[in-house]
Amino acid sequence: MIQRLAILWVLLDGSVLAVEFTQADRDWWAFQPVRQAAVPDAGGDWAINEIDHFIARRLAAQELSPATAADRRTLIRRVCLDLTGLPPAPEQIAEFLDDDSPDAYERLVDRLLDSPRYGEGQATFWLDLVRYADSDGYKSDHYRPEAWRYRDYVIRSFNTDKPYDRFVSEQLAGDEIDPGNRDALIATMFLRHWIYEYNQRDVETQWNDILADVTNVTGDVFLGMGLQCARCHDHKFDPILQRDYYRMKAFFAPLLPRDSMPVGTVPQRTEFFRQHKAWAAATGDIRKQLHAIEQLALLKNTTGEGFNKFIDKIKAMIRKRPQDRTAYERQIAELSERQFGVEPEKLPERLKGATREEWEQLRAELKTFEEQKPKPLPQVKFVVSDAGPVAPATRIPKKGDVVEPGFLSILDPGSARITPPRAALQSTGRRTALAQWITRPDNPLTSRVMVNRLWQQHFGRGLAANVSDFGKLGELPTHPELLDWLAARFVANDWSLKKMHRLMVTSATYRQAAANEQSERIDPANTWFARTAIQRLSAEQVRDGLLALSGELDLKSGGEGVVADKSNRRAIYRKVMRNNPDEVMHTFDMPDHISHMPQRNVTTTATQSLLLLNSEWTRKRAAALAKRLAKRHPGNAEAQITDAHELAFGQAPLPSQLNDALAFLDACGAANKPSGLAALTEYCHVLMNANAFLYVD
């Protein structure tokens, strides 16, 4: 017989709702408390840190032996690309090879973690998760001129090793928890990465879809649970109720996109709010009369598709003064107003006769109160807040039930405890309550999800293979005790991402070579990590690697995005236009940035080879590399070839490769009589097409 646990809800109308979960639901691994497992004794002399003892125990159970350690050149290329996204420079390789101290590798890792390139490399993974872009998507794909500030915030957060719980909390509720911190406000752009259609006159449906998207991505990114499957009905496989979906969505119900918002501490905002309230009371009648005159004239002459395209219900919301709107009316009215312009500067010419005289008189009266109006606080753009201290109701479609904010019932069936912030913030406090629950040290999902993502990054696949689906459609963890040990260690180390990266990449498991005949035969998928996984470079690593190879990479940090094919800055700083992707990176599986991307597809196509062989952009990189080599080693073909291999692959050429290269240069010269630079360019182009450049082992 299936055992069930009854969950009782007391609804707003006083009725009681019973929900039952099976024992299997309750026992599912992802919902169990994170347990600090004992570190096994397995591993002997091979093990370097705790990770290796867990891995060694499973290898022994599968009758597998670990691979030999990778050589130093292979290892430095691997760890540089993993941590910074860039290949090692020859100087880095030489420094590492010349360091014969026992902790040479650990000190290399520390240098990489301290490098500003670390944050740039790690931001790539995070921006995939949150579907970051500099444009709206859909047909118009309008540019978002302030979105890049979020990208820079993410890079800064990784470089300063901001604790992950703080990183999460700022993105969900930075405006509530730290309103005087510009970075915390910029972090809320996480809630602005949805796609948006400027000409969608059904604004209410579009807003509902936006809130659903925010809810879905929050579940995917932080909890590793596919909430969207419960939007229309109880989840078919996981213990996620439709009511749970709307309880989670209710945290975002009062959300308001803001083109600008004041930056100020609670005391500063409280004083501003007090002064503004006094000014508003003194000028309320004047402003009401001005609004009646101005709104009529402005809405008669709107630009774009105009005000009249909306249904009467929305028109009524737009006509209201902002202070007279409910939170929901403010959301819909302000979203609608993005679709047309009102040209207030043309008011003087659109008001005639007595109306204009009255308008000018009212403006003069309002000006007499100018000294009472508080000076505006500094502003930050393209962020979010709540629409007010009272949230719009959240209802389950068709059923009509009103639901209050709450979490997954299998973990916490009660309603969320919400503490409204100070009145000056004009916010509900709902998102703060959500952030606090997600980042609780005893939340069984959050820490497991993040360390599993890091493991996937470094080892090719997660300990739980479906990194954004810890539900029953995902695979069970291959090493559940290790996953829990890492999750507990992550929290105990104050949610430090750098410490977790360091632990993983300094393990013997990470330092293995890619070749292990026994593992390849018995475990071709490398489920048990008896060797390293050979991985293709990401789209950004291909582009940035070619620029680094040619000596053209511009390492300027931060600022507004650039057009990728017109700039040599790192790919992380490009403008991410959803409908106009960069040719090189799109060919190498760059995601569309429309939806959450937990793991990129890795394809092998003829287009990739043809692009590297024939694109003008790639050929220019080859020519630049040839000039670089000729300048570094004038007249010395052998040194040029050796340096080219060092730059491209992190490896010196084998004697046979060197001989073949020299023969190639001689043959080119004999057959075509080109300059030495032209022949060298052709050879550089060959290296840029080699698997040794495109893959890391």
Describe this structure in words.
The protein has 697 residues and is mainly alpha-helical. The protein folds into four domains: 26-120 and 443-533, no CATH class; 164-261 and 381-406 and 415-438, no CATH class; 274-377, no CATH class; 612-696. Helices cover 49% and strands 5% of the residues. The protein is built from 29 helices and eight strands. The protein has helices at 23-27, 50-61, 72-84, 90-98, 104-114, 116-129, 148-159, 164-177, 182-187, 203-223, 242-250, 266-300, 312-319, 327-337, 347-350, 353-367, 430-438, 446-459, 480-492, 497-505, 517-522, 539-550, 583-587, 606-614, 616-632, 637-649, 655-672, 676-688, 691-694, and strands at 4-10, 16-22, 255-262, 379-386, 394-395, 402-403, 535-536, 695-696. Strands 1-2 form a two-stranded antiparallel sheet. Strands 3-4 form a two-stranded antiparallel ribbon. Helix 3 crosses helix 6 (116-129). The protein is globular.
Number of domains: 4
Mean pLDDT: 93
Identify the overall geometry: globular
- Rg, rounded, reads 29 Å
Q: Order of strands across the widest beta sheet?
A: 1-2
Helix content, binned percent: 40-55%
Strand content: 5-15%
Q: How many strands appear in the DSSP assignment?
A: 8
Largest sheet: 2 strands, antiparallel
The SS-based structural class is mainly alpha
- Which stretches of 5+ consecutive residues score pLDDT under 50? 11-16
Q: Distance N terminus to C terminus?
A: 51 Å
Count of runs of 4 or more consecutive helical residues: 29
Oligomer: single chain
